[in-house]
Structure formats: structure tokens, C-alpha cells
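tool_call: predict_structure(chain=1)
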Amino acid sequence: MIVLVSPFQPLSRAVMAMALFVLGAGLSGCADMSDSLTTAFADPAKYDLYDCKQLEPERKSLANRAAELQGLMAKADTGVAGPVVAELAYRNEYVSVRGQARFAEEAWQRNKCHASAPAAAPAAAAPAPSPAPPAPGKGARRSGGAVN
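tool_result:
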């Protein structure tokens, strides 16, 4: 049996390996989530007509949701198939929330809003004194059928 050995075979393997390396390096850049990507999933005009009183709770809500999603993704990453679950279940919403938070922050700055002072907590009222039990023999009544 005659085996033909092509002088180009080692070269084609090297080219194929290099092409796979370049493709992998190019796609790994997609894994980095930049701010330009996050804004693609949010409506840029959503907060244009909001005033400061409306923006403040919205910003807090978005920050809380982003933190919650980040925690869920971190928790999912601890499992066997965690990274896949985190990407499929939470990543899209996380990207969307980050984009919304960015636009809400831009509207906050554009309107020159300032965080309102935390509401003064009402002074803790002293607990009402419990009524003193009546002295025995002074008409004290007991409920139930207890016998003295």
C-alpha cells in the first residue's frame, strides 16, 4: 500500500489551529460586557420625562434588582452547570437592568437632582405602662372558673 504524504499537510494543520485560536480570541472579546452593550437592551427615552421624585425610587429599585441578579448569578456559579444556568437565566435581565440604571442615572444628572434626606424616624414612643393588677380583696375578678 502506498501512502501519499503531502508536504502541505503539516501546514494545513498549523493554519487550522491558528484559525481556531484567532476565532476563539475574537469570540472571547464578546464575553466582556461593556456599557455600550448594556444600553442596547434599554429604552433611552424612558426616563426623559421623569422628575427627581420619580427618579429617586426608580434608581434605588434598579440598583437593588441589579444587586439581586448579581447575587443570583454568583450563587448559580457555585453549582456544576452554574455558569450556564447563570447565563441562561439571569444574564439578559441583568444586562437590561444595567442599561436602565445607566439611563436613569443620566436623567438624574441631567435634571440636577439631589438625594432627599432620609425621613426622620419618629421618636420611639416609650411603651405604655401596663396597668397595675388590682390589689387582692379590692374587687379583683378572675376570669375562668378558678377557685380562690
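agent: The chain has a mean pLDDT of 73. Proceeding to next step.
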